[in-house]
Amino acid sequence: MDSADVRRALDESLSLLAPIADDRWAAPAGGLDWTCLQTAEHIAHDLMAYATQLAARADERYLPLDLVLRAGTDPATVLQIVAASGHLLGLALDAAGPEATAWHWGPADRTGFAALGVNEILVHTWDIAQGLGLDWTPPTDLAAQVLARLFPHVEGADDLLWATGRRALPGRPRRAEWTVRAALKY
């Protein structure tokens, strides 16, 4: 995965979510404890965190960084911050050489950070879509790439929403716990 995949996931998400009226963003996001707006803020936070981890080549721990938005920030502005954070991740991915690694529960390369970003965008866009009453599923090819990179340890992981505990499938109950594996070694 690479920066083009992050940009594509961002485009998919923003084109779906940008037209939604402000008053609908207070709804719970799918099965999460967050509102749709808080979930969008979380996307921005994680994309920014991945960008800074990779840009700093922080190799032993997470940087003590939190993206905190001011109270009362409207949904359109939050989506601008999501876009900016995603673009910063894309720039960090493009600037990182193939040998570059940074900490994500071990040394993760740029493909791992790209997959982490795409995963955050796709699964949380789905959560928000559920809360807003929108019919949307992650693009199959992007979801397959995320599964291959972050979930190779999960037998039968052929559905990103199932792998991330979002839904049950026939013969497979909803997963109560799940983890991604972006690190190159475990």
From TrEMBL:
Residues 6-129 form the Mycothiol-dependent maleylpyruvate isomerase metal-binding domain. Keywords: Isomerase. This is Maleylpyruvate isomerase N-terminal domain-containing protein. InterPro entries: DinB/YfiT-like (IPR034660), MDMPI_metal-binding (IPR024344). GO terms for molecular function: isomerase activity.
